[in-house]
Fold these 4 entries.
Entry 1:
Amino acid sequence: MALIGPLIAPYGVNEQIPSETRQAPSPDHWFGTDHLGRDVFSRVLFGARDILLLAGLGTFLAVLAGTAIGLLSGYRGGTFDEALMRVFDSLLAIPALLLALLLLGVVGPARNALLIVIVFVYTPIVARVARSVVLSVKSKGFVQAARMRGESETWIIFREILPSAFPTLTVEGALRFSYAIFLIAALGFLGIGVQPPNPNWGLMVAEAREHVFQTPWALWMPALAISVLVIGVNLMADGLRRVLRVPGA
């Protein structure tokens, strides 16, 4: 529904109806209207597609980059592996929101910059997860047999090790997706990243905060949407963990 939201939204994303400002939820405006007369339900639908696309693409790229780095680093080991992991440990010591703020301060608070931020913030932790799987399987018999057959490093990593890492990385990707959704919403609330009048859920909460006593529904609805989506993605990740029988279920 979120992906097709703009197709079913009853009003335009920034359509203002001056005669219907601060309208409570009703059959005409399911989530009410805000202080500018914009339909909150329509803006939530538009914001859903935006946050899902940004978080989904950013997470996908982070998982790709982290998997490639983690598999290569874990398989080769040595000084390269140790140095890279120390760099990643340093990045992981910084809270994700603070690291995102630092990055946006460098690249600028643009919508597309959020993709760079998500990739940079979540690649290190995906890489560590991928590396841990490599370390647990690279000494096993099927990997040793591939080495004895003279298979190339690339063949061993992608044909022997990656299938073993796939379930764990799938679950990790789902978890990072939920974190990315929350991060985008938090940055929007702080006024960084997606800029007005774009319907970022966090930005909608921030704008409605100034009129919370007149239009509380304009704050509750996007806040509820964030909560429901994050909880839903986490439940999906937990379901994947159980289906794929990843340790920790």
Entry 2:
Amino acid sequence: MKAMDRRDEIVSILEEAPAPIKATELASKFAVSRQIIVGDIALLRARNIEIIATNQGYLLASAMKAAASGRYRGKLACLHSAEQAEEELQIIVDAGGAIEDVEVEHPIYGVIKASLQINTDDDIQEFVQQMSQHEGEMLSTLTNGIHIHTITTPSIKEFEQIKASLKAAGILLSEN
């Protein structure tokens, strides 16, 4: 299979995928290395195909938008230690929220944003496991724990509930 055909097939697979697809899965399907797939994704992005990389794999931005349609979307500024990360995510998911991303403001690079797509307890456990397994540091270490999450909820009611719960846990960044 030619590289261009493989890239077109990758787009087709992502269009049909109900969940993110890992680079290793695509590599196995096409009998190429994971690095070839990473390069293919970069070239597809250069063709203005909006592909989001999450810790769970790749997905099309259009699939994310469709999944979030009809939901309330807001941002919350948070401040916590690495040890409180799981608690923060659990509070959000338990109240019906989904964590789209995390962003920090770096003094040199400006806003740095990473897609998370954490929607379930399983997603939380996978994220925590990956952070532990890869000895990863959270983006918020660049800003002494301060970060912003984009959250989607069924309605503003759940968003406000999440806000109150994060405040009670001492995680919501206070405006005072």
Entry 3:
Amino acid sequence: MGQLKEIAKQRDPAALDLIAYWDTGAPSYRWNEIAVSEALRSNLLVNFASRVLAMLHVAMHDAIIATWDSKYAYNRRHPSEVDATLSTVLSNPRSPSYPAEHAAAAGAAAAVLSYLFPDRAPLFAKHAEEATRSRLLAGVSYPSDVAAGLEIGHRVVANVIERRKADGSDAKWTGSVPVGPGKWTGTNPILPMAATWKPWVLASPGEFRPAPPTAHDSPERAAEIAELKAYRRTPKANADAFFWEYAVGGLRNYQYWNAHVGRLHFEYRLDANPPRAARAYAIQSVALYDAAIACWDAKYAYWLIRPVQLDPEIKPLFPTPNHPSYPAAHGCLSFAAATSLGYLFPRDAAPLNALANEANESRIWAGIHYRSDTTAGAALGLAVAKKVVETMQVGESQ
């Protein structure tokens, strides 16, 4: 207690800013922002970025849940509940004091991010020190609460990292592009080996692999080509297609859907319920990661030719992404994200689903996918999200 009272004397404006910064949102919130910034800084494709976020949020989720188990085993009161003369900057959390969940999240997050971005490890260590110190400065945790939380975070991370070391994400492609009628005709395809990565929840990358696409010379394919040729573009449709490709597609797809978790966790007041907030981030992140693997599995199982490769008269709105056509990645990823978010935040399920549908339809508007690509992508994303939710859902957290 005496140590906390001495620390309280250090509450200058910078310390108060530090307290407010790390107390914004649930413990997962700031670390999520840091991870997304690192993924963007590193120019990661959605496959790798979703791996980062899945590892981060599974680790923080497990660490925070572990603190809850100990909290209610020991029921330690917060410092100011023991000594009313201790001034605090924040209201005491509703859960018992020991161990500190912010410290558990910091220990887990800093270790995961240091493993994934080793050149930035000193920065993550600094963030962890600030996050934990902010709880002492605020007067809401004992030093022993923080130490125990950090230990939990570090122990959890060791298991997470060990599990993902052999996920295949470092495998190099040594194959060749297959040749034949109806096959994709590009070079240097994007991440073929992502089709073989180990998912978090799916039994295998191909668990929900869609049925083979129709033949390139079939009446069904001819009808799909005709649909693309007949589509009359409008300024709005063009703007929407560009938005979903360049503003929130490709290198930023994960950022867009992840941002909904941050916004909705405030709107649903999960910022005051760290286990439920951590659960929301973990479910959405794992759904996106597993959906990316499942989507790439199908793409490189079938190697379907793109519309413009099949019929040069088709004029795409922008360059076609450099991977096979079937299924549409926008459909896979958007419906996986929207479906998992809709489960977590049910009042927003309908508008989230509408966004996923718009993202998927935008590939038709741009002339880069067949209708069956988008249909298969949506179904695949939905199936993945449902299994992730069924596997990871738990009872309401305290």
Entry 4:
Amino acid sequence: MEIPTTHQTVMPYLMLNGAQKFIDFTKKAFDAQLTASMHKLHEDGKTIRHSEVTIGGSTIMFSEATSDWKPQTANLFIYVANADETYKKAIDSGATTLMELSNQDYGRTCGITDPFGNVWWITSIIK
């Protein structure tokens, strides 16, 4: 089995209301990169049929929700270099606080809910 180079064995697939805005959010909050070759639109030329962003080498697939494919969100755990900075960028990009920043035995962490209903657990390693 040969997996495409931009893919991993397991990847989340989100059905979103506002898929284009999800791209903007992940770029601002998590420095995501859009995988241009995987960005496909419906026949209307506006609605995202399939798209992918990569964050730190991990891919998130997503599409605009439809009447056949209802919104499906996720809880996502993300390691970042600086949880405080990433938390601020996420909040500034429209996320809301689920859990305030704190030091835990596994790192500096917080929880946010993005504007699309996904929960992100943001963590950086404490050295």
